[in-house]
């Protein structure tokens, strides 16, 4: 019984489809089927009851699917810890943050922690929500700063740092006039400008359609500065959270967005895997909590 076979089986069980599992694993469907068949032969136990293109798990299969995923998670944690110990002289915080993040708290937290712990280095990456999530899930980063788009998982520490209101930033000529806020029906008749790489654009469009109730077209930027320049040029409007950009504030109107007569807010969180908790992560997250709580008090 190989760990690879357990991973294939657990993925099929979780997704409920050999086709989707093959796509997620990056291998052929026949290879997935062969490995699961080999696993059943090795155990001398039937795990799956096949019925044409559908299947159900046996009781033994249901048990193994749960334990297999736990074992895979534990094995990955073991691998990471072994690698960390082998490089124990060089402590590194692998950090990922949302491309659209514009606050000062992360910069201050890194500066403060580095002064307190001069032997620690930061390996920093940025990306869209889905890119950050995949990096954390796959173990490429240890700590993520991102917005909440899923129900919180028990596998992760889910630390809500702030709940900023969503604002629409647009050129002055597209402001809502005498109105003090935007609604879905009063959004400018212009594209919505989002920050996302090519591979994440469809998921970003779907999320913002649901968040804003926006049914128009979209434009994409690589970062917040580019998005704001596009908005200033009248190419569209930019949904933004957090503090305004001082320079952009001179050229853009920043209007609160309401839904059902309430301002739309989004949770901005710190995430890390519970089985990857360390003193380094605990101390760094405590600094972030302190900095974000000061922002709330000052408001």
From TrEMBL:
Keyword annotations for this protein, in alphabetical order, are:
DNA-binding, Transcription, Transcription regulation
- The organism's place on the tree of life at top rank: Bacteria
Q: Which SUPFAM superfamilies match?
A: Periplasmic binding protein-like II, Winged helix' DNA-binding domain
Provide the HTH lysR-type domain boundaries: 1-58
> Matching InterPro entries, A to Z?
LysR_HTH_N (IPR000847), LysR_subst-bd (IPR005119), WH-like_DNA-bd_sf (IPR036388), WH_DNA-bd_sf (IPR036390)
One cellular component term from this protein's GO annotations in UniProt: protein-DNA complex
What Gene Ontology molecular-function terms does this entry list? DNA binding; DNA-binding transcription factor activity
Record family assignment: Belongs to the LysR transcriptional regulatory family.
> What name is this protein filed under?
LysR family transcriptional regulator
Q: Which organism is it from?
A: Mesosutterella multiformis
């Amino acid at each position: 019984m190989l760990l690879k076979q357990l991973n294939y089986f657990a993925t099929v069980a979780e997704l409920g489809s050999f086709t989707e599992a093959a796509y997620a694993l990056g291998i052929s469907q026949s290879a997935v089927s062969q490995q699961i068949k080999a696993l059943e032969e090795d155990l001398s136990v039937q795990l799956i009851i096949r019925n044409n293109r559908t299947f159900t798990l046996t009781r033994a299969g249901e048990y193994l699917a749960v334990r297999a995923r736990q074992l895979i998670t534990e094995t990955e944690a073991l691998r990471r810890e072994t690698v960390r110990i082998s490089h124990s002289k060089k402590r590194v915080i692998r950090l990922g943050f949302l491309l659209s993040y514009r606050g000062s708290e992360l910069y201050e937290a890194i500066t403060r922690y580095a002064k307190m712990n001069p032997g620690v280095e930061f390996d920093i990456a940025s990306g869209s929500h889905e890119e950050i999530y995949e990096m954390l899930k796959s173990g490429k980063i240890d700590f993520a700063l991102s917005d909440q788009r899923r129900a919180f998982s028990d596998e992760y520490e889910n630390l809500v740092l702030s709940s900023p209101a969503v604002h629409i930033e647009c050129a002055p000529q597209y402001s809502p006039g005498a109105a003090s806020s935007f609604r879905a029906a009063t959004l400018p008749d212009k594209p919505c400008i989002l920050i996302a790489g090519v591979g994440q654009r469809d998921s970003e469009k779907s999320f913002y359609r649901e968040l804003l109730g926006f049914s128009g077209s979209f434009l994409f930027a690589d970062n917040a500065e580019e998005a704001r320049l596009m908005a200033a040029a009248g190419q569209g409007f930019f949904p933004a959270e957090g503090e305004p950009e001082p320079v952009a504030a001179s050229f853009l109107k920043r209007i609160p967005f309401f839904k059902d007569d309430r301002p739309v807010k989004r949770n901005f969180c710190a995430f890390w895997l519970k089985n990857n908790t360390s003193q380094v992560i605990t101390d760094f997250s405590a600094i972030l909590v302190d900095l974000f709580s000061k922002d709330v008090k000052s408001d």
